[in-house]
Amino acid sequence: MGSAGATPFAQDGDLVAFPVRDPWYYRASKRLMDILFSGVGILLFLPLMVPLAIIIKLESDGPIFFRQIRVGKGRRHFVCYKFRSMVADAESLKEEISYLNEAEGPMFKIRDDPRITPLGRFLRRSSLDELPQLFNVLKGDMSIVGPRPQIPSEVELYEPWHYRRLEVQPGITCLWQVSGRSSIGFDEWMRLDMEYVKLRSLVFDVKLLLRTLPAIIARRGAY
After folding, report:
1. What angle do CA 144, 145, 150 make, to 5 degrees?
2. Beta bridge partners of 50
3. Which one of 65, 115, 168, 222 is most buried, counting C-beta atoms within 10 A?
4. Does a structural domain hold residue 209?
5. 166: three-class secondary structure by DSSP
6. 89-140 pLDDT, tens per residue?
């Protein structure tokens, strides 16, 4: 999906970011694929999501779903859904355990985060906590494949060249997701997202989907 002839607006070494302009037929076919995959996915996983929701409610106090504002395409904010995997007051405890942060850049990641519930640890390692995002895809907030959406406070700390990832629809799975996830440094994560933006196509999306299941099974960087 080329952007030849566009004017670069940011540069990092040999990485030049161009405004993203997709032809209508690519946008339409990708949206059609998203509706198909998310609709079928919801039907297939609903028998699993219902008992998971019940167990989450029984295991600890708090809502079943974790709702968080994320930044999507064009820097538009939307509510992203996940199964709750932490204690109900996890956000208020974040500052207390900030010294445990193992991530680079604006990210906050702790391998053995004390806020995660026993079931939540399983949900995260198996990526089942992401299943409610199928509804985000069906709504049009996200795509099945695309850069993972981040929270506004993380986006505020971006370097200029990072912003190009916000010119495509965020997704459930991506190059970062199948390449090691949290074991990858922040700048390398951003470069993987730039590579996706450069190579994006329906064929490339299918290739990433085929790599997603083995990556989930391997659980590398999943915590």
Report:
1. 95
2. none
3. 168
4. yes
5. helix
6. 888 888 788 777 776 777 777 788 889 999 999 999 999 999 999 999 999 9
119 secondary structure, DSSP code = H
- Predicted TM-score (pTM) of the model is 0.84
Assess if residue 171 is contained within a domain. yes
Closest CA to 37 of 209, 219, 215: 209
In whole angstroms, give the CA distance from residue 193 to residue 177.
Answer: 10
CA dihedral defined by 184, 217, 31, 50, rounded to 10 degrees? -120
Count of structural domains within the chain: 1
- Residues 6 or more apart whose Cβ sits within 8 Å of residue 49: 131, 132
Distance of CA 194 to the CA centre of its chain: 14
Residue 83's domain spans which residues? 10-218
Q: How far is CA 161 from CA 144, 180, 195, in A?
A: 24, 22, 13
Determine, yes or no, domain membership for 1.
no
Alpha carbons 149 and 155: distance in angstroms, whole number: 9
**Distance (Å, rounded) from C-alpha 54 to C-alpha 64?**
8
Amino acid code (one letter) for 31 = R
